[in-house]
Amino acid sequence: MSTGKIGVTSQDLFPIIKKFLYSDHDIFLREIVSNAVDATQKLKTLASTGEFKGELGELTVDVKIDKEAKTLTISDRGIGLTKEEVEKYINQIAFSGAEEFMDKYKDQANAIIGHFGLGFYSSFMVSDKVEILSLSHKEGAQAVRWSCEGNPEYTLEAAEKADRGTDIIMHISDEEKGFLEEGRIQELLNKYCKFLPIEITFGKKKEWKDGKQVETEEANVVNDTKPAWTKKPADLTEENYNDFYRQLYPMSDEPLFHIHLNVDYPFNLTGILYFPKIKNSVEIQKNKIQLYCNQVFVTDSVEGIVPEFLTLLHGVIDSPDIPLNVSRSYLQSDGNVKKISNHITKKVADSLFDIFKKDREDFEKKWDDLRIFVQYGMLTEEKFYDRAKKFMLLKNTDGKYFTTEEYETIVKENQTDKDGNMICLYATHTEEQYTYIDLAKAKGYDVLLMDSQLDNHLINTLEQKTTTTRYVRVDSDVIEKLIQKDEVKASSLTEEQKNDLIPVFNAQLPNEKVNYIVTFEALGAEAQPLMITQAEFMRRMKDMAAMNPGMAMYGEMPDSYNLVVNTDHALIEKILESKDTELSDKIAEITAKLSPVIAEKEALEALKKDKKEDEVPQEEKDKMAEVQKQITEINAERRALLTGFGKDNQIVKQLIDLALLANNMLKGEELAKFVKRSINLIK
């Protein structure tokens, strides 16, 4: 027996390891099991080179809990340790045996996981005491027992062990007694060790018998040593890929399709990425791609290794070349990370294009589930945009699909305005905007359906890329102005008639948190008498503000709509006639009262002509203010008269409600009143 001190420079090293080396205490299990797998892989390498001539036999790594002894033991039948190796690799912290072994056997070595030589000490995060019982594979070796209680003091002595390999015996502390629960250990093995290349057993398999679970004689193997991503694509069927997806995500729907990554230059990278069905919202779940290093789980936060839009994917990425921090818990900044990220982006884009070319019909069927992903990538990654524009699809309201190039060819001739801009009309809801879609189709125009959460952002990007193409929502203006071919026909109404109709219609417009602006257009006698439109710019800004906190100012602004009055419609003429019949005498009185005041104002303006403001006598200024006040009061009187007429006019109310109804904006009590009024009008 011998005693000594571990080669450290500070008494505080163990507390540092316990508190700061690993972000999560449960990582200790990954580290200890990975070390056991490394020891086994080393033995297999020595056997393959002829340096170990014994029988390999069973190479399983075994995990055992002893609740009475309060121990958790990890056992392997790997390479084992001699007394000298314990002193070299255990007593000198951060002297990695894996690095030394890899240097010696770099051409023959199986995948060795460890690199830093610190993993073993993670056991002290959960243990009061840790023991190593090991017997080297070397002929005539003496078994040794090493013991330490989480300080620089240790004991190292000869021991008895029947078989080669190593047992790591952790005496779990009272604070961490949860690690003596079978369910907790099973959970952690499933998380960190599910795909390690050596079989790992934990207890016995269980089965239901007589209404309860009972142990069988069969060992419970917790991992799949040859997961799908480690195999060649040629050796896998579609069902194999789907089975692996279900293994990763048991509760998920079937994926749309997959991409198998297999790169060996200029870096090593394997993996399988799946495209899940994404609903019509950006469901960014950044814990769906799992990062592995030589089949050891590292993290499911892969933002550093893949662009953000790829975090919408599911699957596995495995690379020994990804730079990890010392605890193997997250990525470190490195040139390789950017290269790998760029390669994955290219591979995803190229694979999607291949799928598109190979079976476009199937691609179109999956497009509605896929488009959020593609749009998100185009908006956030310039390189992906350049590739994706070849297979990004637009869908029209008839359910037909087009690439942007195809669509331009189809609509360019008919949908180019007088200024040479190609106008792509779109709707966000086929039923709610049916009236406007129908009017556009009657003109021979095509209408796209853009109802994705990201379509507004995509439209802005597409417009920036092609300055002569504009996207205009089909209900943003009257049909004649959506794609303006010629000068718009002038209204037949006088300015006075228009000014009189504004308060008439304002009197019946809803007064909730919405602004309505009454405008006038000559739309033809067959067009609707009233239409409601919303300017493209403000509507688009408000829609984008819903997703972008930086645009909150637009989201807080009240909605603003145009109430477009068709001056060619007979019902508008009827309203004007009714107004004249009912109000002509009273309006004539107001006009008579206003005329001399207007004349006086004009006279005062003539007096101040060619004078600077300080040259105008105060008396004239006071008189002008008084005259302006009289004009305002007389105009208010006229406006009140017209407002009263509008409030009592059932045709005005009915026309406004019809326009609101066409926009799905008439609801609740107002809809009920409209129905009742409509019945009364029919009687």
TrEMBL record:
<dbReference type="InterPro" id="IPR001404">
    <property type="entry name" value="Hsp90_fam"/>
</dbReference>
<keyword id="KW-0547">Nucleotide-binding</keyword>
<feature type="binding site">
    <location>
        <position position="76"/>
    </location>
    <ligand>
        <name>ATP</name>
    </ligand>
</feature>
<dbReference type="InterPro" id="IPR019805">
    <property type="entry name" value="Heat_shock_protein_90_CS"/>
</dbReference>
<keyword id="KW-0067">ATP-binding</keyword>
<feature type="binding site">
    <location>
        <begin position="96"/>
        <end position="97"/>
    </location>
    <ligand>
        <name>ATP</name>
    </ligand>
</feature>
<keyword id="KW-0143">Chaperone</keyword>
<dbReference type="GO" id="GO:0051082">
    <property type="term" value="F:unfolded protein binding"/>
</dbReference>
<dbReference type="GO" id="GO:0140662">
    <property type="term" value="F:ATP-dependent protein folding chaperone"/>
</dbReference>
<feature type="binding site">
    <location>
        <position position="31"/>
    </location>
    <ligand>
        <name>ATP</name>
    </ligand>
</feature>
<feature type="binding site">
    <location>
        <position position="328"/>
    </location>
    <ligand>
        <name>ATP</name>
    </ligand>
</feature>
<protein>
    <recommendedName>
        <fullName>Chaperone protein HtpG</fullName>
    </recommendedName>
</protein>
<dbReference type="Pfam" id="PF00183">
    <property type="entry name" value="HSP90"/>
</dbReference>
<feature type="binding site">
    <location>
        <position position="166"/>
    </location>
    <ligand>
        <name>ATP</name>
    </ligand>
</feature>
<dbReference type="Pfam" id="PF13589">
    <property type="entry name" value="HATPase_c_3"/>
</dbReference>
<dbReference type="GO" id="GO:0016887">
    <property type="term" value="F:ATP hydrolysis activity"/>
</dbReference>
<dbReference type="InterPro" id="IPR020568">
    <property type="entry name" value="Ribosomal_Su5_D2-typ_SF"/>
</dbReference>
<keyword id="KW-0963">Cytoplasm</keyword>
<comment type="similarity">
    <text>Belongs to the heat shock protein 90 family.</text>
</comment>
<dbReference type="InterPro" id="IPR020575">
    <property type="entry name" value="Hsp90_N"/>
</dbReference>
<keyword id="KW-0346">Stress response</keyword>
<dbReference type="GO" id="GO:0005524">
    <property type="term" value="F:ATP binding"/>
</dbReference>
<feature type="binding site">
    <location>
        <position position="35"/>
    </location>
    <ligand>
        <name>ATP</name>
    </ligand>
</feature>
<dbReference type="InterPro" id="IPR037196">
    <property type="entry name" value="HSP90_C"/>
</dbReference>
<dbReference type="InterPro" id="IPR036890">
    <property type="entry name" value="HATPase_C_sf"/>
</dbReference>
